[in-house]
Amino acid sequence: MAFPKQVKPNIDLVPPKTLSARRHELLEFINKDGTYLPKSVLHADLDLGMLEFVKNELKTTVSGKDINVIDKIITNQRWSQFTETWNFKDPDFNVDLPFITVVRSPEVKYGTNPSTQYTIPVRKQFYYATVPTWNGNQKGYDVYTIPQPVPVDINYSVKILCNRMRELNTFNKNVLQTFSSRQAYTFIKGQYVPIIMNNLTDESVIDLDRRNYYMQSYDFTMLGYLIDEEEFQVKPAIARVLQLVEADTSVRQGRRAEIYPPNPNEFEYRLFYTSTNDTLIDDAVEYNIDLSLISTDNVDSWEVTINGDFYGSDLISIQLNTNDVLEVSVTKTNPALESTILYQAKLV
Amino acid sequence: MEKLVPITRLGKFFGGEDYTLDISMGQEWLEGDMNFTVVLYRIDRYKTLQDDVYGEVPEGGIQFLPPIEIKGLVQILQPTNQRLGTSRVRQDEPGNMRFSVYQAYLDELNVDINFGDYLGYYETESKVRYYSVSDDGRVVSDNKHTYGGYKPFYRTIIATPTSKNEFFGT
């Protein structure tokens, strides 16, 4: 009877985020420990993501011992290979079997990831974020823009070299379980990058007159994309000047502001007639006022018309409203001289 | 404690004293009379900073232990006049270096030559060419590297020429 290995004594009390909340969570991964912009994802980052994937997700243990993984992509500098493998060498300084190594095809072709393929021409910049700024005096915003990532396909061969069929079987089981839905994901700088399994070939050496060992090669394609922070743009947006004014809010008692010029409630309303004139018209009285006669000079009698209606003769007091039309005609005592009628006006 | 087993083969007419005598005479000839000298640059694998993915260092970034002059038999193979792959760029590619050295001499110096170390060989007073060890000749079990089948006594190191942007001795 099979004994369950993965006994989980605890259950997750916090459900994992989904939909929009999950997308925000992923965005936080992308922006973590940096600016508001995503970090560059270039060839070396993708390669490192593949190495981490093999080291962690395809980790293989046989008889309680981990199979060594050469966790660098071997290149032309020979000494570095020695550095990476010195801790599992035999007395001839050959790498001890079993081990797993990752070989990258040097050529990196334009990607087949459909989400980023041939959609936007000429590296057009797209809005990514608006970031508030403050330089001590001025508050504003910067607009961050980035171009569309460039899709790339990178082919890797993950090779296992070993002497025992059990090691092959265990590694094969790990790979097939991981890629049971054809693809798996590696996590590179906050972004999930898909890896597709293509093919499996056996390159074992089983000649009678040579050293025998198993070697199987698993071919994978990483559907990655390149994000180059050299292409990012930051442009200033709105800037605002903040002016601060200090005012004394305490009020002194016993002091009042003087009104200048003076604004009296009463004033003289003088009607002056030249020697050739005996009628005056004020076609728009500006106030509601009461007129009281003070004096006359060279006036025999006078007649008052308001808004075209006769109002009276020799009036001592007159009531006027704003915009009234006042017409006063005089009969002079001596027609050859000037004459004056003086009223006292009082605002009402 | 290391287990030691005495070598008794060829014992009727050859033994350890003969072996030591012959090797010392050979060393006298090679290291005294011939006096071919190469400079060994052993990589300081702790001080050299390499990148996380490829284990590479940029130009001039390799750190090495103090260089050592070692003596041995130097053979420089013939250069090849060829194109660099399919680039159509012609290049006169220097030949590899085959460097043979007595194991006893390396043991005296307490020096080992590893895959990836660099060898410098002065062709003239002013011209030096550097080589990268591509085969450190560590496996010496074959007949050729044994003294008449008695014991291995020398190593053959194969080194390939390096370009200046990989290593130039500083």
How would you describe this protein?
Chain A is mainly beta and 348 residues long. Chain A folds into two domains: 21-117 and 150-229, STM4215-like; 266-347, Jelly Rolls, CATH 2.60.120.10. Chain A has four helices and 20 strands. Chain A has helices spanning 19-31, 43-57, 78-85, 165-178, and strands at residues 61-62, 65-66, 68-70, 99-104, 109-110, 125-134, 138-147, 150-162, 183-188, 191-202, 214-226, 233-241, 266-273, 279-282, 289-297, 299-306, 309-313, 317-320, 326-332, 339-347. In chain A, strands 3, 4, 5, 8, 9, 10 and 11 form a seven-stranded mixed sheet that branches. In chain A, strands 13-20-15-18 form a four-stranded antiparallel sheet, with no helix packed on it. In chain A, strands 14-19-16-17 form a four-stranded antiparallel sheet, with no helix packed on it. The model of chain A has no long low-confidence stretch (mean pLDDT 86). With 170 residues, chain B is an alpha+beta fold. In chain B, the strands form two sheets. In chain B, strands 2-1-7-8-9-6-3 form a seven-stranded antiparallel sheet. A two-stranded antiparallel sheet of chain B has the order 4-5. In chain B, strand 7 and strand 8 (128-135) form a beta hairpin. The longest helix of chain B has 19 residues, at 16-34. The mean pLDDT of chain B is 90. The A-B interface holds A 44, 47-48, 51, 72-75, 77-84, 86, 92-93 and B 43, 45, 50-57, 62, 114-117, 132-134, 136, 138-139, 166.
